[in-house]
Amino acid sequence: MSLQWTAVATFLYAEVFAVLLLCIPFVSPKRWSKIFKSRLVIAITSYGNTAFIVVICILVFLLVDAFREVRKYSVTDKVDLTNNPVAIEHIHMKLFRAQRNEYIAGFALLLCLLLRRLASLLSQQATLMASNEAFQKQAEGASDAARKYMEENEKLQERLREAGLEVPEVGGKAKASAEEENKTLKGEVRQLKDELDATKKALQKSDSDVKAMKKQAENLTVEYDRLLEEHAKLQVSTQLETQLLGQVYITVQLLYYGSTIVDTM
Fold first, then answer.
1. Using CA atoms in the order 224, 230, 235, 238, what is the torsion angle rounded to 10 degrees?
2. How far, rounded to the nearest angstrom, does the alpha carbon of residue 138 sit from its chain's CA centroid?
């Protein structure tokens, strides 16, 4: 394997490890959000967009080059090479390497996009969870304040009755002011509940997206392992065929030279 493909394969292994690390279930999105917002990660990602575009361009170029190599060496069905078994094995070996490089570049490109999207979804989920908690606390605070105002209003009316003073009726200014305040508080509570419901729906959608991305990453890892096993089997079979054809070629040459010597004698 050449130097550039060794680097791409190493990058692919690092991407697989990063995806599996982000899919760990017992690490909460809040923890990942804190890690993403740390000074070290911010310093690294300050040039992240430029580096991401450069990496994508390099992987696309390598993928196109690997595809071109596959097309180049896919000529065994079009060209008759039965008289030259060594050339056939050489072309097969080049074709297997080109296909391997195509798989490596394709999976590296796909996992690069998947990793970026997965990190973005985790950050969004952490933000939605924080907003959900803030809205919930705000709604609970508004409900407690409304309940407290109503209790104080009732206690004040009881004290006024005990003192022999007339308590304003429903049409009174004090009662009207209290009712308006209660209506305002109830409206705020209702608005906060609506915002809380919307935040919960967005959080559930983000959670489903993260689960789908995790499942897709696991499927990609399984498919990549299967392709590696098939590639190893193909390499073993190719080596066996090369050795067998080499022995047959040597035997044919020896028989040819032997028959030539006999005819000469």
1. -150
2. 34
Along the chain (265 residues), what's the average pLDDT of each consecutive run of 10 residues?
Answer: 82 85 74 68 66 85 87 66 65 82 88 83 76 80 82 76 58 59 80 86 84 84 83 79 74 70 63
Two tokens at 246? 């080499």
Which tokens hold the place of 56?
């994508």
Per-residue tokens: 183 = 């209506």
Return d(Cα 179, Cα 170) in angstroms, integer.
9
Rounded Cα gap, residues 79 and 226, in angstroms: 31
Judge if pTM exceeds 0.90.
no
N-term to C-term CA, the chain: 51
DSSP character string of 199-235: HHHHHHHHHHHHHHHHHHHHHHHHHHHHHHHHHHHHH
Cα distance between residue 82 and residue 86, in whole Å: 10
- Asked if 56 and 102 touch (Cβ cutoff 8 Å), the reply is no
Helix H, strand E, coil C: the string for 133-173 is HHHHHHHHHHHHHHHHHHHHHHHHHHHHHHCCCCCCCCCCH
Q: How far is CA 217 from the centre of its chain?
A: 6
